[in-house]
Amino acid sequence: MSSFTAALAAEPIVLDGGLGTLLEARGNDLSSTLWSARLLLEAPSEIRAAHAEYFRAGARVAITSSYQVGYAGLAAVGIGREHTDEVLARSVDLARLARADAGLTDSEAWVAASVGPYGATLADGSEYTGEYGLTVEALREWHRPRLRALAAARPDVLAIETLPSLAEVEAVCAELAGLGVPAWVSVTVAEGRLRSGQSIADAAALAAAHDEVVAVGVNCCAVYDVAPALAEIAAVTGIPLVAYPNSGERWDAHARSWAGTAAAAHDHAGAWRDAGARLIGGCCRVTPDEIARIARALAG
Question: How far apart are the first and last CA of the chain?
Answer without folding.
Answer: 28
